[in-house]
Every structure is written in C-alpha cells, then in structure tokens.
Amino acid sequence: MLKIGVIGCGAIGKEHIKRLMYLVPGAQVVACADFYPEAAQKTAAMFQVPTVYQTGEELIGAPEVEAVVITSADDSHFAYTLAAVKLGKQVFCEKPLALTASECEEIIAEEVKQGRRLVQVGFMRRYDPGYAKMKEIIDSGELGAPLMIHACHRNVFQSEGFQTEMGITNVAIHELDICRWLLGDEYKKAQVLKVKQSGRSTKGYDNPQIVLLETEDGSRIDVELQVCDAYGYDIQCQVVCEKGTINLPDPASVIMRAEARCSTELLTDWAKRFIEAYDIELADWVNAVEKGELTGPSSWDGYAACVAADALNRSRGTETFLPIEMIEKPGLYQ
Does pLDDT of 40 surpass 90? Predict the structure, then answer.
C-alpha cells in the first residue's frame, strides 16, 4: 500500500481522500493537514484518517508518509512541492504547480538534481475519455495535421477574492495544458483580450476574456473564458484539422426525451463534469508511483502552462502578442 499524506482539506481535498480511500487500489491515506486545523480534524474523522498534522511541512517530513497529495491554496503549492521533492518523496500537486515561472524552474532544478521524476501535476482533463479520444484521433494522423483549436470555458461561480489575472492562472490554466497536449507542440506567442463585459458581471474583474495562442508550428488557439455568471459549467473544444474536425462530446450529460421535448441537464459543478477523469487520474498516479515510472503531467508541463499564463497576463491591455520564452527542456522530461 502506498502511504499518502494529503495537504488541504477543502472540497477537492475531501474528494481526493475519498477516492484514495475507497476507489484507488493500493492507496492508503495515513495523514492529512490543513491551514485551518479544525478542517483537518473534521476531515480525518469523516474518513478515519489516523494522523492529523498541524502544518503541511510536518506532514511532508513525517516518516510514515511516502507520497504527498497537495490540494491546498494555489500560493502554497510551490513551497510544499519543493519541500517534498527535496526529501525524495513523490508528489501529486493540483494545478497550478506554482504561481510564477521562476518557482516552477526551482522545482524542476531540484527534481533534475534528484535524478528522477517525482512530481505529477493535476491536469485531470488528459484523463477525460472525451479528450483522450480526441488525442488518439489527432495522433493517428487520419485527419491530417491539426490547424486550429476553438475552445470555451464557462463557469457559474468564483469564490470571494477572485481577480482578473486568476482567470488565466486558475481557470484557463486547464486550456493552456490540454491544448498544448492535444497538439503536441509548445507555445510561441500569447495574447489576452478584454471584450464587451457581461452586464451580469459586476464583481470588479474582467469577464469574459478571450485567450489567443500560437504554437511553434503555427497552429492557432482561441479560448472564450467566462469565469462566472454563465448559464452553467460548460467546457467545449473543437480541433480543426486538414481533413476534418474533432469535437469534445457536447453535452457531457445524457439526453432525455419526454413530453414532446428533448432536453439535457447542464452541470454547474466542475467536480461532476470531470469525476471520471479524477478517478482515472489518481489511480494512474498511484500505479505509476508503485512502478517507479511517472507518465502523467510533469513539472515541465506545469512550467509550460505557467510561462504561457505569465505571458497572457502581461499582454493584458497591450493589444499585442507577446513571445513565450522557456528554458531548455531537461532530458528528464524528454
């Protein structure tokens, strides 16, 4: 059994603990911690986690913890991940890996120093059956080369304290990863545009926004981003290839026909939309850790998304595409 400690006992932390305890073979949650100790105590009681630590640092250093799952606040990811890597412990870190490219580079440097992959980043869409099938078709070459991606990310709610820049670093970060993964190419240029604002969005941050990207081989990507006040949680993606197009299944839920109507439920919760992806993701991570061969999204993938996000946020208000400049890719991630 892989003995896991979980840092962060909020909504996704609880969901991951439940998955690891009841759904994932070979996993055992032996400890948890949270910025709010009472949250950790309640979570431990709920799932019968044997040990609660006062801090994430204590949990990482605990001898019984073999691997660490990080689901705490975004600004804590870097320090916890780096601390675990320095001890040679396996880490599953929810996105983003860090808030800045320089922090990601520091994690990469430590991982390279350790001489093996120790980090997987929680870009769960790669495990979604719809996206996985799209990737399979693209890689098969049956539709020729991919030329463009049209995507949208619509949401209904954000927590208090949300800011314009977080639309990129916290929300569109998923598109930054999945589009790069689908195309198998690095980004070259990026721009974010403020468009006509929704009359429903009066919270002080830009909504909606448009994300524009160009890859090294010239493929173009556009993402419509509505971080809140949309009609539901709606994720769409279309890849335009030389010989045809590939669409993410839409809608994600079942279609019902009754009373002379055809209808489908629109989800409002990200957890329900990608519940299968989360299940597959964590099972894959535990299995890979046990084999000693991580294959999921790496520190490099977390870094690539962060560099693109940095460029997008710097481009805001300039009406200009900005270059995306990355360090040389270490052989560890080739």
Answer: yes
Cα 252 from chain centre: 19
pLDDT in tens, 110-136: 999 999 999 999 999 999 999 999 999
Compute the distance between CA of residue 260 and CA of residue 245 in angstroms, rounded to an integer.
Answer: 32
Q: What is the mean pLDDT of residues 214-238?
A: 96
Distance CA 273, CA 268 (A): 8
Residues 306, 158: Cα–Cα separation, whole Å = 21
Please state, in angstroms and as integers, the Cα–Cα distance from residue 239 to each residue in 123, 181, 248, 317, following that order. 19, 12, 9, 28
Average pLDDT over residues 59-85: 97
- How many angstroms from the chain centroid is the CA of residue 228? 18
Coil, strand or helix at 236: strand
Full-model pTM: 0.94
Rounded Cα–Cα distance for residues 261 and 139 (Å): 39
Q: What angle do CA 140, 187, 279 make, to 5 degrees?
A: 60
Beta strands of the chain (E only): which ranges?
2-7, 27-33, 51-53, 67-70, 90-94, 119-122, 146-154, 187-194, 209-215, 220-226, 234-241, 245-247, 255-258, 261-264, 322-323
Q: 37: cis peptide before it, omega within 30°? A: no
